[in-house]
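User: Quick sanity check before I run a bigger batch. Here is a single chain. Can you write out its predicted 3D structure?
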Amino acid sequence: MKLLGPGTQVSRPITDRVKESLFSVLYKYDLPSGKRVADLFCGVGSLGLEALSRGAELVIFVEQDPKISAVLKRNIAKAGFDEVSKVMRADAFSVGASVNSEGRKYDLVFVDPPYARTEDVGADSPLGGLLSLLQRQMAGDGIVVVRTHQRTDLLEKYGQFRLAERRRWGTMAVTILQR
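Assistant: Done. Predicted structure follows.
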């Protein structure tokens, strides 16, 4: 399905080829089918919607920009995923994935902040703080997928999360962190 775009340059949509490659990697972790997913800094929802189309049980989308959130909601409706989606308008660095009302934790979290916000990847950086927060919001065997510029190398360890693998596609990199 072709997603509606935000009409601005603030979003960095992931290409279909890269998205397909990423989800092929996630299949070896038995994701996302039947799992609870959070898509942080989600933009128009490309990764979360793909997770739903591949059988995710529920996706929480976190996006701060009100105009982009409006487009995101239209994309969710267009895809027919209203019943298995929740949109939170918030700063993901502050709330993380925000555990839902049932208290169930997430199995997979996509973290895709603006590249400028991932230049500092230290334990005390905003990204390090977010990963610390996510440790309390994720299931024991949870996976975090962090998208950055290909020049950015995350640490080998953030609290309970360890670097599992790193992939580069063009100018972007994806780092998979696992407990």
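The chain has a mean pLDDT of 92.

User: Great, the batch can go ahead then.
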